[in-house]
Known about the structure:
The chain is built from five helices and six strands, in the order βαβββαβαβαα. It has helices spanning 6-11, 52-65, 85-97, 112-122, 127-151, and strands at 2-3, 19-24, 28-34, 41-48, 70-75, 104-108. Strand 5 (70-75), helix 3 (85-97) and strand 6 form a beta-alpha-beta unit. It starts with a strand and ends with a helix.
Amino acid sequence: MIFDRAPDFRDALPDGGVLIGLDLGTKTIGTAFCDAGWTFASPADLIKRSKFSKDKAALVAAIAMRQTRGIVIGLPLNMDGSESPRSQSSRAFAQNIVDLGLPILLRDERWSTQAIEREMIAADMSRAKRAEKIDSGAAAFILQGAIDALTSA
């Protein structure tokens, strides 16, 4: 089942559990995981995009390795909150993995990449190193925002 609201997603996971966050790019998929208690998110491996079947197989392997209970996918909205062609691409990706049987939350990601890039620049990370780590960092930022929303209230 695909959710747009954190409370509905939380209701689908009454016992919590490890979540995977995804930052979907055209060339890579950044991944991140959070702990089962939904305290903190950490960047994980980068999936280099190829055919969808290979991307899905890599995602399934990552999910199985961590006994993941839910998926959070970044939803790239326009600055005014409206949907863009990239939003539709993220929704289509979610629809294409719904058969994994895990609840999926689509989470606004408008500021994720910029926020992570600012942090990396502040840490004096080289441009090459930033390019290598930014997508997984953005996935962690998206996932952290989601778990913060899931645990508030």
